[in-house]
């Protein structure tokens, strides 16, 4: 069954079946769509249903692998590399990461608003996963990387790329919207394209790789690539089955 999620038009009846097995608030197809959207499940339904699905854990930025999770990692990395926190606030964040107690309430409040720190009812503060992403981007090596777009999955809103400086034959999932917005190109124009970016190429897993400053790479000099098929050497083989089954 295919279910549309209209934001206007005829009244939308909430399906009575196909409850999501992982949450009590949504039906399965909604969670699948929400997990692939930065706006989460709440952004995929009409206004009158948003209260029902607000905070759905299946599409949450706290769940590894969701579009919202990937977008937050990009946000934290861009903040760290292009517009760092004030020094007095970053000092507090680093103290929390070391397990120390911080008393600067103003700095703690700013970190909580930014999603970099959290507190409990008992008043205990700690750094969040996003806060650690920020700190890692501030202190870890990030450098230029050539990126080849292998394919895109429009239904899942994902692109799969190879970052040679990280691994020559492993695919890296990247938000499709991140690439289209950064390059100004449509999804169908991306496969086979070479991009320049900055990346944390010491990341252990593909999901932990964060690309920033993405742009279309300038064309290679004339004659750089051989036109002789017999002179071409296959350096790698990459295979993938897109989550949504739809390629550009």
How would you describe this structure in keywords?
248 residues, alpha+beta, two-stranded antiparallel sheet, flat, disordered N terminus
Overview of the structural elements:
- With 248 residues, the chain is an alpha+beta fold.
- 27% of the residues lie in helices and 16% in strands.
- Strands 5-4-3-6-7 form a five-stranded antiparallel sheet. A two-stranded antiparallel ribbon has the order 1-2.
- A hairpin with a 5-residue loop joins strand 1 (117-119) and strand 2.
- The longest helix has 16 residues, at 67-82.
- It is flat.
- The two termini are 23 Å apart.
- The model is unreliable at 1-11 and 229-248 (pLDDT under 50).
Short structural summary:
The chain is an alpha+beta fold and 248 residues long.
**Helical content class:** 25-40%
The N- to C-terminal Cα distance equals: 23 Å
Main sheet summary: 5 strands, antiparallel
Number of strands: 7
The proportion of strand residues reads 15-25%
Helices and strands in order, then pairings?
Layout: H1 28-35, H2 50-53, H3 67-82, H4 87-97, H5 105-113, E1 117-119, E2 125-127, H6 129-139, E3 143-153, E4 158-163, E5 172-175, H7 176-183, E6 194-199, E7 211-216
Helix pairs in contact: 3-6, 4-5
